[in-house]
Amino acid sequence: MLRNTENLNEVQTEVFDLLVGFEEEEKLSRKKLASRRALKARRAIEQRFEEKELAAHIEECWLES
Length: 65
Hints:
Number of domains: 1
Strand content: under 5%
Structural class: mainly alpha
Number of strands: 0
Radius of gyration: 28 Å
Low-confidence stretches: none
Number of helices: 1
Order of helices and strands: H
């Protein structure tokens, strides 16, 4: 009986380790996705500012002519 309990504990431990590993992978995956989204949003904002600045410079050039 003791031997079955030991085997069951080993199996339970292995299943627990797999679940914890899976949860950690999911957390890491969500973190990476959030980072990519934040980077994409930040780049879009920077690009919009660059476009506005360029448009202002072009407008200045047209007004000076």
